[in-house]
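Tokens in:
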């Protein structure tokens, strides 16, 4: 008689993770972010988010963008030591026991889909709450889930823009095959994050904006009052919209500047990461 291998469950997978000494209980957080909770109440979606520890590995362009210090990682409850310890533990598991980490993440996405089905809502997942990892391979396995993120990964965004260009701009069948492999998953919406703290990063953002005029850009401004004063105006030939009324970035119109006000460590930023409106031609 053949031995049947039991399918992993949430409980068995979490037990394995605890046995390895990790303290976190879940990877995918639900109803633990005031902004997404507000978004969920005003929409047909339920949102779940992954929070990891931002560093030069999980956010490969953070050094160029100079955004580690003003990172959203310290906003709200993120400034608590216990929260930071959990994020650190999750990140360590992601690198040290990747297969087990991914097993739990997939089980939790499955659970989130079931939850949404139960309440007649659409599932939304933000895998990079405080990281900037390429999850494309995972995302393609969940076509009924709407994934979205902010990103500073200029290389990945450029790759997606070029892959979406008309085939005539590519030479040869081999390149066209590569183009198909580099296309952004259809159920994945990404908003490019601006940083003026680095001249190189800023110039490359401008290049990508010129390559794709429909690309949405998130910019952090000093406070709520500043954001409110510029809503509906134009910057970089894009309309400025409020990024704090909802977290569901995939509902934003294309050709938008998503204005956010500074939170956490960003409130003290003077590097250029937080935007000084006087430096721009906002009309």
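Residues out:
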């Amino acid at each position: 008689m053949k031995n049947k291998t039991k399918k992993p469950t949430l409980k068995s997978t979490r037990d394995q993770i605890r046995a390895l000494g990790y303290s976190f209980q879940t990877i995918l957080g639900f109803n633990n972010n005031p902004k997404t909770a507000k978004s969920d109440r005003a929409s047909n979606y339920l949102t779940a988010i992954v929070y990891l520890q931002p560093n030069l590995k999980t956010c490969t362009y953070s050094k160029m963008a100079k955004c580690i210090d003003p990172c959203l990682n310290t906003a709200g409850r993120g400034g608590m030591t216990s929260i930071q310890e959990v994020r650190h533990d999750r990140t360590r598991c992601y690198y040290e026991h990747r297969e087990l980490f991914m097993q739990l993440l997939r089980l939790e996405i499955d659970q989130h889909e079931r939850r949404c089905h139960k309440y007649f809502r659409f599932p939304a997942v933000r895998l990079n709450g405080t990281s900037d990892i390429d999850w494309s391979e995972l995302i393609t396995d969940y076509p009924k889930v709407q994934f979205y993120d902010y990103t500073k990964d200029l290389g990945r965004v450029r790759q997606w823009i070029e892959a979406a260009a008309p085939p005539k701009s590519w030479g040869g069948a081999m390149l066209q095959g590569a183009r198909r492999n580099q296309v952004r998953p259809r159920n994945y919406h990404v908003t490019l994050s601006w940083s003026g703290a680095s001249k190189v990063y800023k110039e490359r953002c401008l290049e990508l904006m010129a390559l794709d005029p429909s690309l949405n850009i998130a910019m952090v401004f000093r406070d709520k009052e500043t954001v409110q004063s510029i809503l509906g105006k134009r910057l970089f030939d894009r309309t400025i919209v409020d990024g704090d009324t909802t977290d569901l970035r995939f509902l934003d119109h294309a050709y938008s500047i998503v204005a956010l006000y500074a939170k956490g460590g960003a409130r003290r930023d003077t590097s250029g990461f937080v935007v000084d409106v006087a430096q721009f031609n906002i009309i």
